[in-house]
């Protein structure tokens, strides 16, 4: 499927790797879905059973893994499922947004964490995950646009953290920013205490002088 504007939405391997890297728990662990009560999300991409049922409609490559449990336990199946899902809904997203550009990894992230209808929509939980993607994978991997990266930095406060090429650098830079903030706070506190002591000494000196007169 292609959008009417001639653009095709196809998720890249780099973006798939990024979606996998920001998942909140180890690959084999299932966790409750944050917004779908009663559903679990499992495997390396944290797919739900409805997600699996949906993605099977758009690819014939999952016949070997004919149940959700078999698929989420298998890296290859999970990846193919996520790829088929995003390639299908990505084109619908292009049509809905009607924008003359290819989809970015941030667009795919919105659909992955918020469902296909969240394409182009604001959602605080989803936006937080996109910000996490930007920190762990690098802003230009997520947005593929230097201008957008600068805008993201100025609006989310992430200007303290430059684009990271991987999660390890992102973590190191994040710690460095925290250390800078702590250092600034410590210097400010030390200045305040010293300044306050100076004022107290001046006051005492004034009082003693007054008493001597």
From TrEMBL:
InterPro entries named among the record's database cross-references: Invert_lysozyme
Any one GO molecular function term: lysozyme activity
Keyword terms: Antimicrobial, Bacteriolytic enzyme, Disulfide bond, Glycosidase, Hydrolase, Membrane, Transmembrane, Transmembrane helix
Transmembrane segments: 168-193
Biological process according to GO: defense response to bacterium; killing of cells of another organism
Pfam families assigned: Destabilase
EC number: 3.2.1.17
SS bond list: 15-105, 18-139, 55-81, 71-77
Class of enzymatic activity (EC top level): hydrolase
Protein name as catalogued: lysozyme
The keyword Hydrolase is assigned to this record: yes
Reactions catalysed: Hydrolysis of (1->4)-beta-linkages between N-acetylmuramic acid and N-acetyl-D-glucosamine residues in a peptidoglycan and between N-acetyl-D-glucosamine residues in chitodextrins
Protein species of origin: Bugula neritina (Brown bryozoan)
């Amino acid at each position: 499927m292609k959008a009417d504007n001639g653009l095709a939405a196809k998720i890249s391997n780099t973006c798939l790797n990024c979606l996998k890297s920001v998942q909140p728990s180890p690959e084999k662990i299932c966790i409750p879905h944050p917004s779908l009560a009663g559903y679990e999300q499992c495997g390396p991409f944290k797919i739900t059973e409805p997600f699996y049922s949906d993605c099977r409609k758009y690819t014939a490559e999952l016949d070997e893994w004919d149940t959700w449990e078999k698929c989420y336990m298998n890296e290859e199946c999970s990846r193919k499922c996520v790829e088929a899902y995003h390639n299908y809904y990505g084109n619908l997203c292009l049509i809905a947004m009607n924008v003359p550009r290819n989809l970015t990894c941030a667009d795919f992230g919105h659909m992955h964490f918020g469902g296909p209808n969240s394409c182009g929509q604001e959602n605080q939980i989803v936006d937080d995950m996109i910000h996490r993607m930007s920190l762990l994978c690098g802003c230009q991997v997520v947005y593929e646009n230097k201008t957008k990266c600068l805008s993201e930095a100025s609006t989310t406060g992430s200007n303290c953290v430059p684009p990271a090429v991987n999660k390890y650098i992102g973590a190191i830079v994040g710690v460095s920013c925290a250390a800078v903030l702590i250092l600034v706070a410590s210097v400010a506190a030390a200045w305040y205490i010293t300044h306050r002591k100076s004022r107290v000494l001046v006051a005492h000196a004034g009082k003693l002088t007054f008493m001597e007169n």
